[in-house]
Amino acid sequence: MYSVVAPFFGCAVGIFLLGTATRTASPKGVIIGSLLGYALVLWVSPGLLQLPAGSWEFAAWSLEESQYALGKPISKFWLSFVSLTGTVVCGYVLSLGLPRRAEHSLRNLTIWDLDATSKE
Length: 120
What we know:
Largest sheet: 3 strands, antiparallel
Number of strands: 3
Mean pLDDT: 78
Helix content: 55-70%
Structural class: mainly alpha
Low-confidence stretches: none
Radius of gyration: 19 Å
Shape: elongated
Strand content: 5-15%
Distance between the termini: 47 Å
């Protein structure tokens, strides 16, 4: 069950971080970034395998069956971190190129504006 919930949890935390910790996040950039973060988990989870020699093989589906049987797949607990990182990085980069709201409508919405609200 955790392998199903973890990618969504990482995307949700990434959306929260983009919305509260950055001023450059745009709605379209965040939504596309979260979809890309989830797609990253779907791409990485079946394809990352640790071999007995200590090396990591990314394209595990290209290995022979005997090598694949000796490998150890990535832990399910890393899936939320992968989706979080993918969401934040992709959402932030995409938001830089997409139009966003006017600066005055974004006041008092991020952690960077906490000092301004306490002085008023």
